[in-house]
Design a protein that fits this description.
The chain is of the alpha+beta class and 295 residues long. It has a single domain, classed as 4-Layer Sandwich (Metallo-beta-lactamase, Chain A), CATH 3.60.15.10. The protein is built from eight helices and 16 strands. The longest helix is centred in the C-terminal third of the chain and has 18 residues. The two termini are 22 Å apart.
């Protein structure tokens, strides 16, 4: 699937499949509600995907998020039912993109399933940046929260994903509303984490746009205000800002890219009087779905 917004060619990239607890995926929402649209296994685990986004404008190759990568031990891979290998590198290779081809890596936030693929082990067993020529960029508050190792946040930010970037001096920070490249703007949403960021590709001349919304709305089901992940650090902020940006996407007919929905890569939504928002157009489904599985 290729989507064109102004000078940008956008293409989803597979960063790996994983399973998480249904309570973590849907927070305080009762299982009797969320199981009407999501199935779970005998251990209450639901299957998500880690979706990254490749963006090229003819001069610059940008990768948004990196999935969980390939360095996690067997015990972690088993717990989350992760795929083997390094999914993001394998997916990029399938599109003809080698690690040295990536000029910039942008992070929505620095949780393991979004930043784990940022580093790899080299032939000497040292952790190094996975994309040697790239500048890595994170929202300034997100980087501060990740690197300061506060006790209440330390488990959320594995240091193996962070310090190699710092040691190689390839990490930079940005602020809310900053235009990182022509037609690409960083939007600090907060909510999921203090510095969580969505990325908006927008053609000012036509108002065509695509929003990589990040974990404030990880799947199409989470377009409903009360459907939130337990991982949200600031739950009420997530609900407020999610509504605002979903309204913008619906009213402007922007494309939405969800980071964790295995059923659809890119879609459009519209407002709905009872369901708040519904999906109207899906460019591609990764897996077959039943009608009731769409919000």
């Amino acid at each position: 699937m290729m989507l064109t917004i102004g000078p940008w060619q956008l293409e989803p990239v597979h960063g790996g499949g994983l399973s998480i607890d249904g309570g973590a995926a849907f927070g305080v929402l009762p299982k009797t509600v969320w199981q009407t649209v999501w199935s779970s296994d005998a251990n209450n685990m639901v299957r998500f995907t880690c979706r990254c986004l490749l963006a090229r404008n003819g001069n610059t190759t940008v990768l948004i998020d990196t999935g969980y990568g390939g360095k996690y031990p067997v015990i972690d891979r088993k717990a989350f039912q992760m795929e083997s290998g390094n999914p993001v590198l394998e997916s990029l290779a399938g599109k003809g993109i080698e690690p040295n081809d990536v000029d910039c890596v942008l992070f929505t936030h620095l949780h393991f399933d979004h930043a784990g693929g940022a580093t790899v082990y080299d032939t000497n067993g040292r952790l190094v940046p996975a994309f040697p020529k790239a500048r890595y960029m994170a929202q300034i508050w997100e980087w501060e929260d990740a690197i300061l190792r506060r006790p209440e946040l330390v488990s959320a930010y594995p240091e193996d994903n962070l310090y190699p970037l710092q040691e190689n001096r390839c990490i930079a920070t940005f602020r809310d509303g900053e235009q990182l490249f022509p037609g690409l703007t960083a939007i600090r949403t907060g909510g999921h984490t203090r510095g969580h960021t969505a990325f908006l590709f927008r053609d000012a001349s036509t108002n065509e746009g695509a929003l990589f919304i990040g974990d404030i709305c990880p799947t199409a089901s989470h377009t409903r205000m009360l459907w939130n992940m337990s991982y949200d650090t600031f739950l009420l902020e997530t609900r407020r800002i999610k509504r605002h940006w979903l309204e913008q996407a619906a009213d402007n007919r922007w494309w939405l890219v969800f980071p964790h929905d295995p059923r659809m890569e890119v879609c459009q939504i519209e407002r709905h009087p009872k369901k708040e928002f519904v999906v109207t157009t899906v460019i591609k489904n990764e897996y077959p779905t039943k009608p009731h599985e769409r919000p």
